[in-house]
Request: fold
Amino acid sequence: MFLNSKMLAVCIVALLYVSGVRAQNAASFKTDKVLLKKFEGEFKSASAQYQLLAQRLKPDRFPKTYYAKTDSLETSNSGWWCSGFYPGTLLYLYEQTKNKALLTEAHRILKSLTKEQYNKTTHDLGFMMYCSFGNALQIAPKPEYKEILINSAKSLCTRFDPKVGCIKSWDSNKPEFLVIIDNMMNLELLFWATRVTGDSSYYKIAVTHANTTMQNHFRPDYSSYHVINYNPETGAVQQKRTAQGYANESAWARGQAWGLYGYTVMYRETKDKKYLDQAQHLARFILKHPNLPKDKIPYWDFNAPNIPNALRDASAGAVMASALLELCKYADQVDGRTYYSAAQTMLRSLMAAPYLAKAGTNGGFILQHSVGHIPQGTEIDVPLTYADYYYVEAMIRYKNLNK
Reply:
């Protein structure tokens, strides 16, 4: 069959479209040069904040939050799920500023975290070890970091149960196997472990966990439950609930952010389109939700009863911004620009009042107005280490997209 010139032109255009639809690149995004310029000062300001925070820390203690009314810093030991964010943020900021004081502090606190590579009582080893030693391996590597991360991945895998098809999140004395949406964030460590060891068992566990979570954690509108309670003997779902959100059937904001970020990572690591589709479904739920404010920093729960007077959660906004700045690279042109634009708005919001703390305040934390666990009455409208971590990560991702 021979094609005339008009038909040939149409075919060429179609082929170019199909080949380019998944080849999003930074050149197609509308860069905010003013925002990029602000990053230079923000990295320096954030570095000064973290040096202030470091001065208040006692040996072997990790920052959790700060209470301005009493000028009190709340800290934890290395076993707390957030322990990796402080060294991870120090390393991110060192990478951007080359401030050696940050690297020195990171090396100091990493020594206190090292023993957690053998911790088999938590599912949060991705947060704890990959956000810290994973960053260190990329930014300021030492020979021992690789082995620490491999041991961390081995420890995490001990919590996987093939009957359930998931990594256990919370231990319980009851006949239940509890899995939370947050656990999607720990799978990146397992993909790394397969790459460096050649052992595919890590990869298979990560994929199995993600598939089981995709099947059971999401409602028809792609909002996520926080906790799924499985029968440990049969793997059947016993209960679906939301522990840190407003209600069992509500959409807890940070839970939606964890899912968005987690399935974006799943697509990056596997190139399986079903994970890209899932990430985009979650992005659309968030960005098209009628209760998402104009500044795109979400209320702590999309269904909080006192919206528009409900508390915002800067941590959820930071995680969403960082996730969208990766997802935009994998989506088609139209969706990619939507995600990129939304992340820009989130960053602009976080870089200004009321979210960005004034220099020398906030106990050394960068961001204000995050929400930890309202139902439990803890960490309400305070700074949090993971808000800072994903905020800095989002700035770096935006900067790298626009090189």
The radius of gyration is 21 Å. Residues 35-401 form a domain with the Glycosyltransferase fold (CATH 1.50.10.10). Residues 1-24 have pLDDT under 50 and may be disordered.
